[in-house]
Specification:
Protein name (chains A, B): glycine oxidase
Number of strands of chain A: 18
Keywords (chains A, B): Oxidoreductase, Thiamine biosynthesis
Shape of chain A: globular
Strand content of chain A: 15-25%
CATH architecture of the largest domain in chain A: 3-Layer(bba) Sandwich
Largest sheet of chain A: 8 strands, mixed
Distance between the termini of chain A: 12 Å
Low-confidence stretches of chain A: 393-403
CATH topology of the largest domain in chain A: FAD/NAD(P)-binding domain
Oligomer: homodimer
Number of domains of chain A: 2
Radius of gyration of chain A: 22 Å
Order of helices and strands of chain A: EHEHEHEHEHEEHEEEEEEEEHEEEHH
Pfam families (chains A, B): DAO
Largest interface: A-B, 23 and 23 residues
Catalytic activity (chains A, B): glycine + O2 + H2O = glyoxylate + H2O2 + NH4(+)
Biased composition (Low complexity) (chains A, B): 382-397
Number of helices of chain A: 9
Helix content of chain A: 25-40%
CATH superfamily of the largest domain in chain A: FAD/NAD(P)-binding domain
Chain lengths: 403, 403
């Protein structure tokens, strides 16, 4: 029984999966998204900074190019998702707590400028004119006009609404369904099988638990604590720009929303705990207050911890998977029917339009050579042979029929 | 129609109201408790320290006597409530952050000792032997054996279970029902009237909104932020005693529970905000870490803010209300059918058995002369005349019949 359920199955309904699904749907494809709880993973915690410039890290040139590419795509993507997604062209203000923090920003700026990125030093007087509630004792300020923001929870809601409830299967994908030579869809935890010509694995860290993948994905959880706070009327607006600070070498950000709330975050923990860290909350509040003392006046209404899907080089695992030597392939040497899109780490929200665009290209048979460096087998270089996958395929035989 | 619904109506199902109701029920009286959401006020936030000794404040001698009296009643009260209420005879360890904090504890101790209270200085070595995770740089430690703890949420659940669901009316009392000369029960927001021989007003700050009271109650909200955290296995037990600290003059406490969680609190805000204060959370985490650095390792799973019912002298408003001159009274000069029990401020959980005992005495016609100083009219001394109350009584005429 080879009945096709959809043209494309996307596993994972975080911002990446939904962005890919939306782009595929707009191209006229029938799309099904599979996720037991859409938008409840890293997207639920994310602050939504579109920080191609300020998130640049040394020696991540290819990733930077991809981030800048995605930032350029954002306005059109946001327009297609609808005004409800909370896209704002808020500028970003980088603030240094002390002289060493200022030097760190200045050093980074010289490399950012070498890459053609616009990072403008401000006098503290200029910074304070823009943001009157800044702390008195800051050491330096830089403005980045190009780094904007979106509200990831509103983005998830907007994309789900665009796709329509009929496109969403609220269940967990247990394994890829193989027909021997190609990926044919997924088998759900409850035994149901969904079939499609193409399957996109975009479920972040969940990809580790998806059986039947032909390649090992070196994902690791990097936890972050994120605070959501309400700004009382007496201190509104707390800030108008997104504030990114370094305070004694520790990063912290304050993202102001249209609704009078702010998001504060920036912890990175690899301690294996998905609970909110008391020490993390303490440091965020301490460092945010060092930049904007009135943070003490805010109402803390939510603390969230989530894991981001980290990779060894901080770049995504994005593309098709090369077929093992001597095995059937799609003409370009890859396993037919399978696309991987995970490992977006700190940049999932920013990279959503670019990931969606790359995946649409792959669905159309076009692999953009600029992003070949993100191929998902780059750390393993060995695709699992057919025999190994067949075991998974057999145990993945449909039980509940075709949905 | 004077059909009696119950012997006693208790307005308010926090620990105070439930304690009074339970004591009255145990004496054989038919009791009805009226509260739209039992246990959701200050009792929901409270840490449950039974801190008669360590909560002593200068010049609050009569309150101290009442607190010590209540601490003595606690074991028997806890036994009657059942083992589920989480009463523990955990000792209390007072820790000084710096020399000034130590001096503050030492000064207080000399007065505590003059009142016959046992506060024992410990060497830091002794303190560390008891609690290995204490910070290295503390300035002093004192042990108070007599200050124990209970879990207020479990206490609420235990008392509700003892009383039985049929004794609880989940609705808001809008006003006292008067029959002209005496309080005859309450009228609910939905118009239903409940009648009883005696009505006890024990709804904390809610008493301000109860119409028809013959006396003005000078209650004000004093907000507190309370954190609940889980202790990971690697740092268990975080502490075995209740830790009360002074850190640069600021109080903070850490109450360890049997289930591997701790409660951290001690903020007092009069800023009118019932939202969790970011600055409050920051200071609690900062000061708790100053005493026990491993607090940084904990998982923050709940932040709660609630208001305690404060009074001008920090003592409760507890007793019957004198009748106005020339008006009918109960033989002892008081308004018949009415008892007030609110304003327990920081001490509601500790004072629950004593409040229950006092109210039972009043129901039996016995006013303990030791607690006359807590009479609810002590700040006003003028009881509202009958005519004024009659207006309230008329507008409080039963609409929905007798329940």
């Amino acid at each position: 029984m080879e009945e096709v359920h959809a043209d494309v199955i996307v596993v994972g309904a975080g911002v990446i999966g939904l962005g890919i699904a939306w782009e595929a749907a707009r191209s006229g494809r029938r799309v099904t998204v599979v996720d037991p709880a859409p938008g409840s993973g890293a997207s639920f915690a994310a602050a939504g900074m579109l920080a191609a410039v300020s998130e640049y890290h040394y020696q991540e040139e290819q990733l930077l190019e991809f981030m800048v590419h995605s930032a350029v795509l954002w306005p059109a993507f946001a327009a297609s998702a609808g005004p409800g997604c909370g896209y704002l062209s808020t500028p970003t203000l980088c603030l240094a707590g002390d002289a060493a923090d200022r030097q760190a920003f200045a050093d980074l700026r010289s490399v950012q400028q070498a890459h053609g990125l616009d990072v403008r030093p401000l006098t503290l007087r200029e910074a304070r004119t823009r943001e009157p509630l800044l702390a008195p004792a800051l050491a330096g300020a830089f403005e980045i006009e190009a780094d904007h923001q979106v509200d990831p929870r509103r983005l998830v809601a907007a994309l789900l609404a665009r796709l329509g409830e009929e496109s969403v299967v609220r269940a967990r994908a247990a394994r890829l369904a193989w027909d021997g030579r190609r990926v044919a869809g997924v088998v759900l935890e409850d035994g149901r099988e969904l079939r499609a010509a193409e399957t996109v694995v975009a479920n972040g860290l969940g990809a580790r638990d998806l059986a039947g993948l032909p390649v090992s994905l070196p994902l690791r959880p990097v936890y972050g604590d994120v605070l959501r706070l309400r700004v009382p009327a007496r201190v509104r607006p707390l800030v108008t720009a997104t504030v990114r600070g370094l305070v004694r070498g520790r990063p912290v950000y304050i993202v102001p929303r249209e609704d009078g709330t702010v998001v504060i975050g920036a912890t990175q923990r690899e301690d294996g705990s998905d609970a909110v860290s008391a020490g993390g909350v303490y440091e965020l509040l301490r460092d945010a207050q060092a930049l904007v003392p009135a943070v003490a006046e805010l109402e803390l209404y939510e603390t969230t911890a989530r894991a981001r899907p980290g990779t060894p080089d901080n770049a995504p695992l994005l593309g098709r998977v090369p077929a093992a030597a001597g095995e059937p392939h799609d003409g370009a040497g890859c396993v037919p029917g399978l696309i991987v899109a995970t490992g977006f780490f700190r940049h999932g929200v920013l990279l959503t339009p670019a990931a969606a665009s790359v995946c649409l290209g792959l669905l159309e048979g076009v692999a953009d050579p600029r992003w070949q460096g993100f191929r998902p087998d780059r750390f393993t270089r060995t695709t699992r042979p057919l025999a190994e996958r067949s075991a998974a395929a057999r145990s993945a035989a449909p039980q509940g029929g075709i949905r």
